[in-house]
Design a protein that fits this description.
The chain contains no helices and 48 strands. By secondary structure, it is mostly beta strands. The strands form twelve sheets. Strands 1-48-47-46 form a four-stranded antiparallel β-sheet, with no helix packed on it. It has a four-stranded antiparallel β-sheet with strand order 2-3-4-5, with no helix packed on it. Strands 6-7-8-9 form a four-stranded antiparallel β-sheet, with no helix packed on it. Strand 19 and strand 20 form a beta hairpin. The N terminus is likely disordered.
Length: about 550
């Protein structure tokens, strides 16, 4: 297990915790500033007027000051995992653990947390009927069903309807029907919870994510693909754009003054919108959301970063962040790692089982490979084939052919391959959850452990002298390993890495990647505060 996440209170954008280093490197330099959350999803305004926000990867439920932007943890991991949050008629609160499959509940801040339902993978959105107190919840992505949840947690959920098309962020209307989007059909609908009848309200969306009413009964919805907040005419289905925001929108909430709050998972951003004027104000946000895999260009000027909800490029001189792909606004599929080919970026997603090849010249998608078993990394070999590490199967898989349709096992029996890189010697180096760092010869197929007994090693990079730098997030440190002798030494410690994995995550949680340039400067992203750091050799 990684070390527990320290509680962070962020005022404005961020505050920095003190760091201590061993003698090999200078103090870490911030290249991209920290931010709160780990992707922000569900929003709610409770009876006390508090703005609440949930994170799935961060496995926490937060309170956000809408004026100052200060973020404090209300319920931490693992119970706080919240894809959506609902407030009941008496101020009670319920929330959904997307990966845990649980509907959580508590009467007030001082009351114990209860599990009302479990074994509902992908449990996503929920809301109370303010008149009757009934609680409804939907499964999306890992399931497709709508349920009524027993408030006492004694009876199993009642199935209302299934295979709707992804009934995402919904709200109970004054008529008792449930109003919300069908993510996969581009529609906003209403559903009768008594018999599951579905009526389409509007089809004027690409990928609608959530819908809410204001105090006057006006219906608003967000489109995650277009980044638009729209008002819907419930009679005609026609829509009017209230505000143009960025893509990757996730949820919305309305306060007592009818201000609308919108979350963006790719920027850890919450924006307040005045629906009368369309004016917007960012409450909180950041440049990075859940930074993971890294790949550095040959000249050291561009750092490619897999940010889970986006694929990004960072200028190493200025820290400027540029979006290459955004989830739900393009064909990005939750990138967890990125490798550097001669002309291609190799982007892997263990959550969707995909490898995406992207042209470095024009940012176009060259190929998309599906049905991989939790791919964790990819490297390009001399003949143009791709070597993929599968965390799920313990294999190194070689993909070849015009569309990479030819698959063959290059190596088997690995114990949780995490990160992989191509060395200057032509060898492939891979870290394993078992604690080993291994060398793979792509010509002979020989796999040899060069170091063992490490504490869940993850990212690795080659230094200019040929030694390997390896991240041990569970120990919050970096090691230097001589690949010829296996001897190791601590290079840097007490680093802001080592977030404990939340429900549904692999033991590595958010993998910590490393990249090193020709001068020996090292880049790493923090799974604690979402910042990008640089270490310079002394």
């Amino acid at each position: 297990m990684k070390s527990p996440m320290r509680a962070l209170a962020l005022t404005g954008l961020f505050s920095l915790a003190p760091l201590a280093l061993a003698t090999s490197y200078s103090n870490p330099e911030v290249i991209v500033a920290p931010s709160p959350f780990k992707g922000v999803h569900g929003l709610a305004v409770d009876k006390q007027g508090r703005l609440l926000a949930g994170s799935v990867v961060g496995a926490s439920l937060y309170q956000v000051n809408p004026e100052s932007g200060e973020v404090t943890t209300l319920i931490g991991p693992d119970e706080g995992q919240a894809d959506d949050i609902a407030i009941g008629p008496n101020g009670e609160m319920a929330w959904t653990g997307f990966y845990s499959g649980k509907v959580m509940y508590r009467e007030n801040d001082a009351a114990p947390i209860q599990v009302l339902a479990s074994d509902l993978p992908g449990i996503n959105s929920l809301d109370f009927n303010d008149e009757t107190g009934a609680l409804y919840a939907s499964q999306v992505f890992l399931g497709d069903a709508l349920w009524e949840i027993d408030r006492a947690g004694e009876q199993p959920p009642r199935l209302i309807v299934k295979e709707m098309g992804g009934f995402n962020g919904f709200e109970v209307g004054t008529d008792g029907w449930l109003y919300g989007p069908l993510w996969f059909k581009g529609q906003v609908v209403r559903i009768n919870p008594a018999d599951g009848e579905i009526k389409v309200i509007s089809s004027d969306f690409k990928t609608p994510a959530a819908a809410n009413f204001d105090s006057k009964g006006n219906l608003y919805a967000i489109d995650t693909f277009s980044g638009q907040l729209k008002q819907i005419d419930q009679s005609s289905g026609e829509t009017r754009v209230i505000a143009q925001l960025d893509s990757a929108l996730d949820n919305l909430a309305v306060d007592a003054q009818d201000n609308i709050y919108v979350s963006n998972m790719a920027n850890n951003r919450i924006t307040r919108v005045n629906p009368q004027t369309g004016d917007t104000r960012q409450i909180v946000g950041g440049e990075l959301a859940v930074p993971a895999g890294l790949a550095l260009s040959e000249d050291g000027k561009t750092l490619y970063l897999a940010d889970v909800f986006s694929l990004r490029a960072v200028d190493t001189a200025t820290g400027k962040v540029t979006d290459l792909r955004r989830a739900h606004g393009s064909d990005a599929e939750y990138p967890i790692n990125v490798g550097l080919g001669r002309e291609r970026l190799l982007v892997t997603s263990f959550s969707t089982g995909t490898l995406q090849l992207i042209s470095r010249a024009d940012n176009s998608t060259l190929a998309m490979v599906h049905h991989l078993n939790a791919p964790s990394a990819a490297v390009e070999l001399d003949d143009g084939s791709i070597l993929v590490s599968e965390m799920g199967s313990g294999k190194l898989l070689r993909l070849a052919g015009a569309d990479l349709g030819e698959r063959s096992d290059a190596a088997t029996g690995l114990q949780g391959p995490v990160q992989m890189m191509r060395g200057s010697d032509g060898m492939v180096y891979v870290t394993q959850m078992s604690g080993a760092v291994s060398r793979f010869n792509p010509e002979t197929g020989e796999l040899t452990n060069i170091a063992e007994g490490l504490r869940l090693p993850e990212g690795l990079a080659e230094l200019p002298d040929g030694r390997l730098l390896v991240a041990e997030p569970s120990a919050q440190r970096l090691l230097i390993i001589d690949p010829k002798t296996g001897q190791s030494e601590v290079a840097a410690e007490q680093l802001p890495i080592g977030l404990a994995p939340g429900p549904g995550m692999p033991p590595t949680g958010i993998p910590t990647a490393l990249a090193a340039d020709s001068e020996g400067r090292v880049y790493f992203a923090s799974d604690i505060d979402n910042a990008l750091y640089r270490l310079t050799p002394q």
